[in-house]
Amino acid sequence: MSYPLVILLCVGLLQQTARAVPMDKLADSKTCGDSECSYVLSMATALDDFIAPDCRFINIRKGQMVYVYSKLTAEEGAGVFWSGSVYSERYVDQMGIIGYFPATMVKETQKFMEDTVKIPTTDMDFHCY
C-alpha cells in the first residue's frame, strides 16, 4: 500500500469521527455478555416492523432474526431498548449494522449467555455517525 493512499484513508477516518453527533442517552447502564458487549446474548425474532426514528436505532422487519448484544437498563429496572443487528436473506444490506430497537418488538428465541455483566453506558454508545 502506498503512503498517499494510507494518508487519504486516515483523513477519511478522521472526518467520519469529526461528524459524530452526540444524542441523548437512552439509559445509564446496560447488560452485556462481556465488558465490551462483543458476545451475542441471545437471538430474537421480530414480532412486527420497526422503523428507526434516528441513527441510534435499526430498522427491523417482522419475522427477521435479530442478534442481541446488549440490553439497556432503565431506571425502573426493566429493559426498554436492546442493541443488536439483524439477519435476513431479504435485507442483506442491513446485516452487520448495530443499533437499538424496543425490546417489546422482539421475542427472545434462544439465550446464549447466562452469565452477564452490568456496565455503565458512555456518551459514545449514543453517538450518530
Automatic annotation (TrEMBL):
It comes from the Eukaryota. It comes from Labrus bergylta. It holds the Pfam family SH3_2. This is Otoraplin. Residues 39-111 form the SH3 domain. GO terms for biological process: cartilage condensation. Transmembrane segments: none annotated. Keywords: SH3 domain, Signal. Residues 1-20 form the signal peptide.
